[in-house]
Amino acid sequence: MKLLRILALAVAFAGIWVFLAPPSPSGGSSEAEVSRTFSFDTDPQTTVLTVTYLGGLSGGRTVYLVHGDGRLRREQRSRSGELRRSSEILLSFNQVQALLRVAVIHGFLDLTQEELRAEIVRPLAISDAGTMQVDLEVTSYERAGEEMGARNRTLRLSAPQALHRANPESLAIKGFVELSQLLASY
């Protein structure tokens, strides 16, 4: 599995984990093959990843909150914001790392919302499509050997599955789909 090949080294230091995501062995120099290193805070109070699904036909909202200690909380809310369903599971350290890695290797920490919009070469007009918002926080980030420091990023994309089918060359749009699929597997 591609995600398993990416982890080269994990080092724990004072509650912060550092990961190396080396270039893909396929050769070439695409954005997907740029090496990236990141670390995240394992404090139970720290939310390292939030994925929110807004709207769509249901008009409600589903939120996944991933905490540094591995807690994954899922909340489903109605259009009015009323809590309909809530659940919590404990992810392993490797599962938290895998979720963050999907976002990092697909360039989420390097993109602005405007740059993400620019990756949509073939836009779609889907009036009832939901929106996926990703909020990501890492304590340190290094890209191709250059230290970028602590980073947090919020990106939103409407109809990520449909946009990925229309724009398969976009690494970031593909990342939204892969992150959604990984979350759904838990």
Description:
The chain has 186 residues and is α+β, with helices and mostly antiparallel strands. 24% of the residues lie in helices and 38% in strands. The protein is built from five helices and eleven strands, in the order H-E-E-E-E-E-E-E-H-H-E-E-E-E-H-H. Strands 7-6-5-4-8-11 form a six-stranded antiparallel sheet. The protein has a five-stranded antiparallel sheet with strand order 1-2-3-9-10. Strand 6 (71-77) and strand 7 form a beta hairpin. Helix 4 packs across helix 5. The chain starts with a helix and ends with a helix.
Considering DSSP H and I runs of 4 or more, what fraction of the residues is helical?
10-25%
Order of helices and strands: HEEEEEEEHHEEEEHH
Please tell me what the overall shape is.
Answer: globular
Mean pLDDT rating: 84
State the helix count: 5
Q: What does the largest sheet look like? A: 6 strands, antiparallel
Q: What is the CA-atom radius of gyration, in angstroms?
A: 16 Å
How many strands appear in the DSSP assignment?
Answer: 11
Helix-strand category: alpha+beta
Strand content: 35-45%
Low-confidence stretches: 1-17, 19-29
Side-by-side strand order of the widest sheet: 7-6-5-4-8-11
Distance between the termini: 17 Å
Keywords for this entry:
single chain; 186 residues; alpha+beta; 6-stranded antiparallel beta sheet; 5-stranded antiparallel beta sheet; 5 helices; 24% helix; 38% strand; disordered N terminus
